[in-house]
Design brief:
Distance between the termini of chain A: 26 Å
Number of strands of chain A: 15
Radius of gyration of chain A: 25 Å
Region (Disordered) (chains A, B): 347-371
Structural class of chain A: alpha/beta
Number of domains of chain A: 2
CATH superfamily of the largest domain in chain A: Crotonobetainyl-coa:carnitine coa-transferase, domain 1
Mean pLDDT of chain A: 96
Largest interface: A-B, 157 and 157 residues
Oligomer: homodimer
Protein name (chains A, B): CoA:oxalate CoA-transferase
Strand content of chain A: 15-25%
Shape of chain A: elongated
Strand order of the largest sheet of chain A: 5-2-1-6-7-8
Pfam family, one (chains A, B): CoA_transf_3
Largest sheet of chain A: 6 strands, parallel
InterPro entries (chains A, B): CoA-transferase_III_domain (IPR050483), CoA-Trfase_fam_III (IPR003673), CoA-Trfase_III_dom3_sf (IPR044855), CoA-Trfase_III_dom_1_sf (IPR023606)
Low-confidence stretches of chain A: none
CATH topology of the largest domain in chain A: Rossmann fold
CATH class of the largest domain in chain A: Alpha Beta
GO molecular function (chains A, B): CoA-transferase activity
Chain lengths: 382, 382
C-alpha cells in the first residue's frame, strides 16, 4: 500500500505551469515536494483567476499537497537553508531562463560537485543549449513555433490554439519521465544527472504522423478541422440534436458501421479501403450524415457501441466532470481547505497502480511560506 | 555515457499508437524493447500511409530500434517462447481491450504469481475498471468525450480535433511515467506492480485551467480560437505578411510590449491589469494590430524579442523541421535502413540528459518477426 515515490524529496524552484505540473505528478506518485518561492508574491499563478474565497483555483489545482517556503537566493541566511534542503533532496526542479541558476551559484557543475547524487531537472522554453536558449517563452509561443497550431483548426481559416496548454504540460510530462529514468539509474549507482527538457522540443516530439507526412510527401499538412487526415471515417457527424464522433479505424470497423447504419456501401470501390475512404472522405461524410441526421446522438452512440464501433459524444467540461466512467475512475478529486472541507475540484491521478491507494481528496495547496517552521524542524530534526 | 535504462528489457504486446509511443520513449532512454506481434499482419500501423519503398513512415517513426518476433499466444509452442521472454523481462506493455490478456491466461494475478518482479503496464481507451472499460476507443473518441475538443476551435463554429493525436500520445506518456515510477520502487524492493492508464482519464489530466474555470464559475468554457481565455494579450496578430503570436503573460511584459510597439496605453484603466485586459481583449487586439499590420512578421519578432517579449512565428511542419533551434537540439533524427542509409525522418528524444549520448540516427524499425533468430539465441544463451 505504499506509493512508489514515498520517501523521495523533490525541491521545486519552478513556477507557473510546466514545472509545477511535473512536480504535481511526482507528488501524486508519493514524493514529498517542497516548493521554494520568491518572498513577497511567490508563484505567479497565486494571482491567476478564477478565485474562490480569495484563493486561486488554478494554483490549487497544480500545487495541492506541496509545502512552501519563501527564500531569497541572493541572501546568505536563505542560501544556508537552501543548501540544507539540497543536502536532503533527491531532485531539484527549476524553470528559470537558462543561466539564471548559474548566476545564483547553483549551476550544474557546482551542484553536482557538492551533491553528487542530486538530480537537476530543468524545463525551459527552448532548452539549455542552442541559439535561442535564453529567449522567453509561454505555451502560446511554442504551440505556434512547434507546428501544432498549423495542423489544428479548419481548412482555409486561421489556425487556432489547442484549448489545453499542451505547450507547457507535455514538457512537464517529459521532465517527469526524465527525472524518473534518472532515479532508476541512480538506484544502481548511476549518480546524479542533469535533465534538460525544452517546451519547443516537446511539441515536436508529439507531432507523430505530421513529420512522416511532411518528409515523405515533401508537403506540410494543413489543418483538417474535426477529422483525422489519414483515416476515414474518423471525424464528427451531425445527429438530429447535434454533433458526435465516429472513429472506424480499419476495414472491419467500417463494415460494422455500414451494417449498423444500414448503409449499402458494400462493393463500392470508393470506400473499399482506408486510402480510398480518405480520398472520398467528404462524400462519405455526406452519405453517413444523411442517415445519422434522422436520430439523436444518444440513439446512434448506443447503437454503434452495441455494434462495436468506436463512437462518443463531444462533451463540454461540465459534462466530462459528471461522466460515469470518469467518476468510476476517481478522476475528479476534492482539494481540501485547512479545515478538511472540499474547496476546489482538480483532476485525479491518471496513473493507477496496484497496491497503491488512490485517494479521493488532496491536501490543500500551501500558503506562501506557510510551511517554513515545519520544514526547518524537519531539516534540523535529522 | 550510459543511457539510464540500459539493460532493462521491455516486452511489448502493444500496437498502433499509445503503447508503441510509450515503448519508443523507453527505447530512447536505453531500454531493449522486444515487440511481440501477431503472425501474418503484425502491428496495424505497418499498413498506415505514407509509404517509402513499400515501408510505412508512420510505423518507422514509432518503432525504430525495437526488435520483432511474431507469436500466436493461443499456440503452445509460441506460449513457451513468450513465457521465456516474460522470465527475462522487466516490464510487459499491452493495449488490448480489458479482459483479452486474462483470457489468454496472462492476467495480472497469474503473471504476478509467476513473475513477482514483473511490471505489467496496460493502456486502454477507458481503463481496466468502470462501466465502459470494455468499449473500444480511438484518439478521436477520447478527444471528444474528454472535453479538449469543446475548448478547441473558434467561438460559434464547430469544434475541431487537436491536430496531433494527443488522445493516444498523452496516455502513452503517463504509461511511461507509471512504468518508471514502478521501476524506481522495485529497485528498493517494491516488487512488480500493475500500471493501468486510460486514454480518457489522461485527457482529463491535461485540462488544467478548464476544470478550475468550470467548477468555480459553474460554467464550462467554450473554444476561444487562437487566444488563451485567461491571459491577454496572448494570441495571434496580423503583421503585413501574415500571422504571428505575442504572449505577454504579466504586467511587466505588457509594459515592454507597449513600449516596443510605441502604443500609448499607459494609465488606461481598460488595460491596467491582466483581468482588465482579458475583459477588453478584442479591443486590445485591434489596437495592437493597427500597429503590427504596418510591418512584417520578421520585423516584429526581432523587435519584440529584443525587448524581451515572448513572441514567435506560426510555423508549418516543414518550417519546424528546418528551425535552427530544433536543429541545434538534435530534434530531427534519421531512421536508417538495413544498409545504414537514412530512410525516414523522426522526432528526436526531448529528454536530454548529462553523460548520455544523444545520437543523430536511429536503427531501423523491425521487419515483422525479423528478429526471431536473434531473440531465441538471446533467450537460450543465458
Amino acid at each position: 500500500m505504499t506509493a512508489p515515490l514515498a520517501g523521495y524529496v523533490i525541491l521545486d524552484l519552478s513556477h507557473v505551469l510546466a514545472g509545477p505540473y511535473c512536480t504535481m505528478t511526482l507528488a501524486d506518485l508519493g514524493a514529498k515536494v517542497i516548493k521554494v518561492e520568491r518572498p513577497g508574491l511567490g508563484d505567479d499563478t497565486r494571482a491567476f483567476p478564477p478565485f474562490k474565497d480569495g484563493k486561486s483555483a488554478y494554483f490549487a489545482a497544480l500545487n495541492h499537497g506541496k509545502s512552501s517556503i519563501a527564500l531569497d537566493l541572493k541572501e546568505d541566511a536563505d542560501r544556508t537553508i537552501f543548501d540544507e534542503l539540497l543536502s536532503r533532496a533527491d531532485v531539484l526542479v527549476e524553470n528559470f531562463r537558462p543561466g539564471v541558476l548559474e548566476r545564483l551559484g547553483y549551476g550544474w557543475e557546482a551542484l553536482h560537485a557538492a551533491f553528487p547524487e542530486l538530480i537537476l531537472a530543468a524545463v525551459s522554453g527552448f532548452g539549455q543549449t542552442g541559439p535561442d536558449a535564453k529567449r522567453p517563452a509561454y505555451d502560446m509561443v511554442v504551440q505556434a513555433r512547434g507546428g501544432v497550431m498549423s495542423i489544428t483548426g479548419e481548412t482555409g481559416r486561421e489556425p487556432v490554439r489547442v484549448g489545453a496548454s499542451i505547450g507547457d504540460i507535455v514538457a512537464g510530462m517529459f521532465l517527469s519521465q526524465g527525472i524518473l529514468a534518472a532515479l532508476v539509474d541512480r538506484a544502481r549507482g548511476g549518480g546524479g544527472r542533469r535533465v534538460d527538457v525544452s517546451m519547443l522540443d516537446s511539441q515536436l516530439a508529439i507531432l507523430e504522423h505530421a513529420i512522416a507526412l511532411t518528409t515523405v510527401t515533401g508537403k506540410a499538412p494543413g489543418p483538417s478541422g474535426a477529422r483525422h487526415p489519414l483515416i476515414a471515417p474518423f471525424e464528427t457527424f451531425h445527429a438530429s440534436d447535434g454533433l458526435f464522433v465516429i472513429a472506424a479505424g480499419n476495414d472491419t470497423l467500417f463494415e460494422k458501421l455500414c451494417i449498423a447504419l444500414a448503409l449499402p456501401l458494400d462493393g463500392d470501390d470508393r470506400f473499399a479501403s482506408n486510402p480510398a475512404r480518405v480520398q472520398n472522405a467528404r462524400l462519405l461524410k455526406r452519405l453517413i450524415e444523411a442517415v445519422t441526421i434522422e436520430h439523436t446522438r444518444a440513439h446512434w452512440i448506443a447503437k454503434l457501441t452495441a455494434a462495436g464501433v468506436p463512437t462518443g459524444a463531444i462533451q463540454t467540461i461540465d459534462q466530462v466532470l459528471k461522466d460515469p466512467q470518469i467518476q468510476a475512475r476517481n478522476m475528479v478529486v476534492d482539494v481540501l481547505d485547512r479545515n478538511g472541507r472540499p474547496a476546489f475540484k482538480a483532476a485525479g491521478n491518471p496513473i493507477k497502480m496496484s497496491d497503491v491507494t488512490d485517494p479521493t481528496t488532496r491536501p490543500p495547496a500551501p500558503e506562501l511560506d506557510g510551511n517554513r517552521g515545519e520544514i526547518l524542524r524537519w531539516l534540523r530534526g535529522g
